[in-house]
Amino acid sequence: MTRAAFAPGTRVRTRAADRDGHSRLPRYARGATGTVVEVAGHHPLADDRARGLDVAPQPVYHVRFRAADLFGAGEHTVTVELWHDHLEGPA
Amino acid sequence: MSGEHHSSDISARVRRVEALLEERGLLGPGEIDQRIDEFAAGGTPANGARVVARAWVDPGFRARLLDDANAVLPEVGLSMAGGLQEQRLKVVANTDDVHNVLVCTLCSCYPIALLGPSPSWYKSEAYRSRVVRDPRSVLAEFGVTVPPDTGIAVWDASAESRYMVLPRRPAGTDDLDEAELTALVTRRGLIGTALV
């Protein structure tokens, strides 16, 4: 893991690609902009582990989205736990 | 969202793999069931309820719990280290401003040590798909009316952390001791589909 971790408060955008196979980036949260609220440790990317790959740990974040940004409606928030590789960087 | 693992094909495949592993001596007879039993042993919502009651009576414990839950669980004789590795626990507190509710949209991730085995509705596709989009309606179906000026925060346990809701202490409970408070807390309260 060479990239710096995103600090809480950073606006980030999730990847939009629909990768083949298992992903812990839920479909409803793809291509969406949210805010990092907490760094939740470092773990190997589950998407890669599901493919049998031995990969290095990377930062995992709680990323909060406004429902309106995910679904086009709703006043609530949804907080999803995402790996660094699920994020395209500051939005 | 992935499908549910209820097909007889996958069940048959799992049984076949288990049988082959036993034939080759890699698994003892019934070892998987035994390991699951060991993992689930002691897992009950009464554990989560004890944590909540302690947080209600001890503001210092509450603050430490919300800051680093894993570090304070040993104070009430609990831990998240019952599985292959210790799981991170994040406790989220209900307040006047926000009501929290938990889901795992990808499968059924859940803090078994603190809440026991998960209820079947928690694993249903209906709950998992609807609560992220329209939590207010789903909560209403559980009989929970969230005031219009109280926000709702949905937490998707989609990765390594597990979550537990810290409900608000009910009014009129000032005279209750910690054990009596523990008895008020329900499994649904710890998931966020009940107020307590």
From TrEMBL, chain A:
Residues 3-88 form the Nitrile hydratase beta subunit domain. Transmembrane segments: none annotated. InterPro entries: CN_hydtase_beta_dom_C, Elect_transpt_acc-like_dom_sf. Pfam families: NHase_beta_C. Residues 1-26 are annotated as: Disordered. SUPFAM superfamilies: Electron transport accessory proteins. This is Nitrile hydratase beta subunit. It comes from Klenkia marina.
Automatic annotation (TrEMBL), chain B:
Keywords: Metal-binding. Gene3D superfamilies: Nitrile hydratase alpha /Thiocyanate hydrolase gamma. SUPFAM superfamilies: Nitrile hydratase alpha chain. Residues 9-194 form the Nitrile hydratase alpha/Thiocyanate hydrolase gamma domain. One of its GO terms (molecular function) is transition metal ion binding. InterPro entries: CN_Hdrase_a/SCN_Hdrase_g_sf, CN_Hdrtase_a/SCN_Hdrlase_g. It comes from the Bacteria. This is Nitrile hydratase. It comes from Klenkia marina. The lineage of its organism: Bacteria, Bacillati, Actinomycetota, Actinomycetes, Geodermatophilales.
